[in-house]
Amino acid sequence: MRVCVATVVHHPEDARILHRQIRALLDAGHEVTYIAPFTHCNVTPRPEVRAVDVPRAVGRRRYRAIRAARRALRRAAKESDVIVVHDIELLFALPRGRRRPPCVWDVHEDTAGALVAKQYLPEVLRRTLPPLIRRIEANAERRMRLILAEDSYQGRFDRLHPVIRNTTFVPESAPPPPGDDRIVYVGHLSEARGALELVELARRLAEHGVRMDLVGAADPGVRPVLRDAQREGLLDWFGYVPNRHALRMAEGALAGLSLLHDVPNYRQSLPTKVIEYMARGIPVITTPLPLSASLVGRIDCGVIVPFGDVDAMVQAVLRLREDPERRAAMGARGYAEALHHHNWPEHAAEFVALLEEWALAAKIASAPPPGKAVTV
């Protein structure tokens, strides 16, 4: 099977797109064309994929990226058995016509809900765009296949669609126990993701000898604050690091942080970083978003702190530091849960089988009826 995978919004090394889905397709022996913003993100494409470089859609500057993706997708459609897109923007770039291969939208964000946190948009657009986005989603449901990253996303659509959750690769052997002098955050940094609380938390913990590692790219609005904190020696900000390396950096930390704010885009999702911390055997400190709090509370693999309450965050870290047996037990419980219920290899075959089924169905539907003459 020949699969075209496309994004103009996500980083080409995005964990769900590259490290999980594309890797699963390659491991199953399929060919992959990958349309992504390699140059913009300073990424060298993997030799196993046929890479097509396009601009990245950033902020309000999106038309150039969509136009380039439209051209690339039109070419790829001629030699692909299925197309998978990861951005709502690419719904406007898909090739048209009855002879295009089946197109799949992998829905792993609540785009309308995310508008609340996009400060570069005028307030009037943040209020008026959600209904338009819902209409775009409804139209996409009528003309293409959908894969959802969360069960809760089903409520946005009229029909049921297969769910392929954002799990992670869990080490086969248990990682080292949590340490006592370092906390870590892995993922994109923004105000809505708790960047300002992270800086203040690092400031408060510095006097206690606990340092903070931040591993991830950052929105322009919080970069100056992060740079200043790093210059002061309050924390180490490593910038973007490929997922597999970033998770190894998390091993041995006292705790992993997920301080997302209470915004619509996060209320329906289980942050992947929570599962990733569990998979690396470290306790989780999370704000009380429903799915995060439910999982962490049920497994007892971390501490739930109020939104924006840095005092509570400081106390959570210090209490874990003072109790090595408790944090080791939390890390072990989290690792066991991740290994048995959130290990990507257990779900990879389901993802590949879906694409194979849809590609085969399209071939059968387009085949001439038996006995009908075919011009050659």
UniProtKB/TrEMBL annotation:
<keyword id="KW-0328">Glycosyltransferase</keyword>
<feature type="domain" description="Glycosyltransferase subfamily 4-like N-terminal">
    <location>
        <begin position="16"/>
        <end position="149"/>
    </location>
</feature>
<dbReference type="GO" id="GO:0016757">
    <property type="term" value="F:glycosyltransferase activity"/>
</dbReference>
<dbReference type="InterPro" id="IPR028098">
    <property type="entry name" value="Glyco_trans_4-like_N"/>
</dbReference>
<dbReference type="InterPro" id="IPR001296">
    <property type="entry name" value="Glyco_trans_1"/>
</dbReference>
<dbReference type="Pfam" id="PF13439">
    <property type="entry name" value="Glyco_transf_4"/>
</dbReference>
<keyword id="KW-0808">Transferase</keyword>
<protein>
    <submittedName>
        <fullName>Glycosyl transferase</fullName>
    </submittedName>
</protein>
<dbReference type="Pfam" id="PF00534">
    <property type="entry name" value="Glycos_transf_1"/>
</dbReference>
<feature type="domain" description="Glycosyl transferase family 1">
    <location>
        <begin position="173"/>
        <end position="335"/>
    </location>
</feature>
